Amino acid sequence: MNQEFHVSSLVVLTQPPFRHQLAQQIATLEGAEVHAVSDEGKLVVTLEGPSQRPIMSAIDAIQAMPGVLSAALIYHQFDELDVECKE
C-alpha cells in the first residue's frame, strides 16, 4: 500500500505588531512549524501532512487569521511511501 507525504513551505507576511502572536497561532496547527520570525513581520513556515488537502486547509486557516496580510506558497513536494501490509 502506498501512502503520500507532503511538505510545503510558506512565507507569511503579517502586520508586524502581531507577528509573535501569529507565529504561536500557526504553530498550533497540525503539521505546522514556524522556523523564523522577522522584525518586519515575515514568518517562514513549513507544513507537513499525509495529503494535499490538510496542507491547503492549513494555508486557508493561516490566511484567515486576523493580522495576516498574505501567505505565499514557496515550495511543495510530495513523496509516495511504500508501506508493507502484514497479514
Automatic annotation (TrEMBL):
KW Metal-binding (keyword) present: no
Compartments in which it is found: Cytoplasm
Major subcellular site: cytoplasm
MF (Gene Ontology): signal sequence binding
UniProt KW keywords: Chaperone, Cytoplasm
InterPro entries per record: Chaperone_NapD_NO3_reduct
Matches recorded under Gene3D superfamilies: 3.30.70.920
Entry's Gene Ontology cellular component terms: cytoplasm
Record has Chaperone as a keyword: yes
Gene Ontology BP, a term: negative regulation of protein transport
Job description of the protein: Chaperone for NapA, the catalytic subunit of the periplasmic nitrate reductase. It binds directly and specifically to the twin-arginine signal peptide of NapA, preventing premature interaction with the Tat translocase and premature export.
Family of this protein: Belongs to the NapD family.
Summary of subunit composition and partner proteins: Interacts with the cytoplasmic NapA precursor.
PANTHER family: CHAPERONE NAPD
Name assigned to this protein: Chaperone NapD
Record gene name: napD
